[in-house]
Amino acid sequence: MQKPIRKISLIILLIFILPIVVFFIYQFASLNETEKEINEIYTQQLEAILYSVNQYSEDVISSWVNDINTILYSTNFQKKNIKNFLRENNSIKSIFVFENTLSNISVFNNSDTKNISKNTIQKILNDKKPLIEKLQNYLEVGYQKIEPLGKFTSNDLYVCLFPLHTKENERDIGGIIFNPSQFIKENLSGKISQTAGDKFVLTILNKYENEILHSTENITIDKILLKKPLWLLPGLSLGIKMKSGSIEELTSQRFYKNLLILASLLLILIIGMGLIYYNLRKELRLTQLKSDFISNVSHELRTPLSLISMYSETLALSRIKDEEKKKEYYSVIHNEANRLSKIVNSVLNFSKIEAGIKKYNFQSYSLLEINNDVLNTYDYHIKSKGFSYTFNSAKKIKNIICDKDAISESIINLIENAIKYSNGKKEFEIIIASNKKGVYWEIKDFGVGIASKDQTKIFDKFYRVSSGLIHNTKGTGLGLSLVKQIMDAHNGDVTVKSSIDIGSTFRLQFNKSFPD
Ligand code: ADP
After folding, report:
1. Closest to 421 in 3D by CA, of 445, 393, 452
2. Which atom of ligand 1 is closest in space to residue 449's alpha carbon?
C-alpha cells in the first residue's frame, strides 16, 4: 500500500503544490514591481493635481488679460471701466500699458495703491526689451502669452507682462501688478480647496519652502510629498500630501494586504491538497483492508466448510464403526458449523449496522445478569481450551438501559479476543464495577498486547494488527469495530489499555445519562 500512496504524494506534489508554489513566488516577485508602478501612478496623480491648480491660476490671469484688452481697445474707451475692473479685482494693484518702444506708458492704479508711477514701471521695463519682442512675436502667431516677471521692486507685489490685441496694427504691451497673498486668497483658495477634496492637503509655500503661506489643512512642511513651482508666481511653490499617509505607507499597506491575501490563498490551497491527500490515503487503506477482509473471510469460511465436508463424508460412507470416534466427528461438525454461523452472523450484523438498519431493543437490564448468562454459556468452551478466569463485581450495580443481545455479543467478542491473542498465557479477569460516569464491564488479559500506534486503529473496520500472532490467528477485523458501533449506539464507549507482551484491558463503559 505504501507504493500507491507515494505515487499519489508525488502526483499531488508535481501537479498541484509545485505550480502553486511557483505561482506564489512569481506573484510575490511581481508584487514588488506592481507596487513600484503604483508608486509612479500615485506620483503622476499628484503631479496632475498640481498642474491643474497651476493651470487654473493661469486661466484667472488670462481672463483678466482678456478683460483688460477688451476695455482698453473698445471703441468707446472710458477710464471708469478700467476703474470698475480694478474695484472688482482687488488683488490687482495696478495695470499699465505701453508701446513696444517702451514709450507712451499709461498707468491705472487701484484706489488703495498710490505710489506706482510711470517712472517705477519704466525702470523695471528697461532691460526687458528682448522679452517684449518675444511676446509680440507670440501674439503674431496667435498666442497671447503671459510672462511672469517675479517680484515688483522690493515690495511684495508681483508683475506679469502680456501682448495686447490693438485696433490698428500697433504693438502694445500690457502689464498687471498684483498682490500674491490676496490673489491666493481671493482667486485660488476656492479652487485649491475644491481640488484637495477630502483626499489631499494642498499648500502654497514661500520662496525658500520653509513657510506655508496657505494650506487647506494644518500640516508641517516635512509631511509634503511633492512640490512644484507656481508658474505665475515665481519663487512660490505648490505642495501636496495625501490625507491617508505617504505614498510609501500606502504602497506598503497595499503590499502587505496583497501578500496576506496571497498567503491565505496558498494556505487554503495547501490545506485543500492536504485534505484530498488525507482522504485518498484513507480510501486506499480501506480498499486494502477490504481486500484483506475478503481473503480473511474466504479463508475463515473455507476451513470449517472443508472440515464439515470431510467429516460428514466419512460418516456418510459408514467407514467409522467406533461410536466414540463417531461422536467426536459429530462434535467437530457441530463446532465448525457454529463457527461458520458466528462468522456469517458477525458479517451480517456488521453490514446491518453499516447500512443503518440495525434495530436495538433497549430495556433495563442488570449487566451482572448479562455477563453471567454469557459466562454460563461459554464456560465449557473457555475451559475446554484450557483457559481459566476470575470474575469480580461490586456489590451494588445499577441496571443499565441496553440491548441485551448486542451487549452479549460485545462481551463475547472481547472474551474471544482475550483467548485468541493470549499467546499461551491462558487466563483473564473480568470485572464489573461503577465509576463517576456509570457502570462498566472490563476484561484484562495477559496476552500479546497492542502497540500504542495500533490502539486507536483496532476499532476501525477490517483493521488487524499486521505483526506477530496475527498471521496465525483467524479473524475478520470486524469484532472490535462491531463492539464500538454497539457502544456508540448505547452512548457509551469502548476503551483499551495495553502494553506489548504484558496484556490488554478492554472496558465497556455505560454512561449514566443514557437514555434520559
Ligand atoms: P479480529 O480479531 O477478527 O482480527 P477484531 O476487530 O476483534 O478483529 O480485532 C482487531 C485487532 O485488534 C486484532 O486483529 C488484533 O490484532 C487486535 N486485538 C484485539 N483484541 C486483542 C487482545 N485482547 N490482545 C491483543 N490484540 C488484540
Report:
1. 445
2. 25
Q: Do the beta carbons of residue 125 and residue 202 sit within 8 Å? A: no
Closest-CA residue to 430 (of 494, 371, 344, 475): 371
What is the rounded CA–CA span in Å between residue 224 and residue 247? 11
Cell readout for 217 is 489643512
> Which of 310, 311, 304 minimizes the C-alpha distance to 328?
311
Distance between CA atoms of residues 239 and 201, nearest Å: 8
Distance from the first to the final alpha carbon of the chain: 45
250: CB partners within 8 A, 6+ apart: 42, 242, 244
Ligand 1 proximal residues by C-beta, below 6 Å:
413, 417-418, 420-421, 445, 447-450, 458, 463-465, 470, 475-481, 504
> Is the Cβ–Cβ distance between 241 and 250 less than 8 Å?
no
Can you list the positions of beta strands (E) in 307-387? Answer: 363-365
Query: d(Cα 7, Cα 447) in Å, to the nearest integer?
Result: 38
Residue type, 406: A
Does the reported pTM lie above 0.70?
Answer: no
CA dihedral 69, 70, 72, 74 (to 10 degrees): 150
Among the ranges given (3-12, 90-99, 385-394, 411-420), the one the predictor scored with the smallest mean pLDDT? 3-12
CA distance 64 to 72: 12
- 254-275 pLDDT, tens digit per residue, is 778 888 888 888 888 888 888 8
Q: What's the confidence (pLDDT) of residue 506?
A: 98
Which amino acid makes up residue 491?
Answer: N
List pLDDT tens digits, range 396-417: 899 999 999 999 999 999 999 9
Q: List the residue whose alpha carbon is closest to atom 3 of ligand 1.
A: 475
